[in-house]
Amino acid sequence: MTTATYQAPFGALTLVADGDALVAVHLDGDPAAPPPRGVLARVARQLDEYFARTRTAFELPLAAPGTDFQRAVWAALVAIPFGETRSYVDIARAVGRPTASRAVGAANGQNPIAIIVPCHRVIGASGALTGYAGGLERKRWLLAHEGALLL
User: Fold this and answer.
1) In angstroms, rounded to a whole number, what is the distance separating the alpha carbons of residues 117 and 108?
2) What is the pTM of this model?
């Protein structure tokens, strides 16, 4: 495993790779981690483009460990377009488990690759912002950055 720090507009992120694949983006970055190299340099470049609003989708090798259900949920998250949101119920339907919105919420909360696998794009059925590992202020910031939420 290799790690690196990436400075996002709202604070440091820790990037984690296993070989040539990204396995995690932690929102509680370690400023002491080394700068990105290898695949993590590619991640950093794509994050730069995302934050500059010149990239709306990531093209990176991902290898997050998880159950089949979690990986299905995470794949559904990646399919949510930049600037749009979906509810937990929408994701449950997308993975073929329409009554599993709570399980979707749990899988969403276990997503290890923040921002790249955009769990911030999932909101409550009422349109309310709900839990986010990085805090609701970061979720609000990311959604506003993408134009999915007006501040």
Assistant:
1) 10
2) 0.91
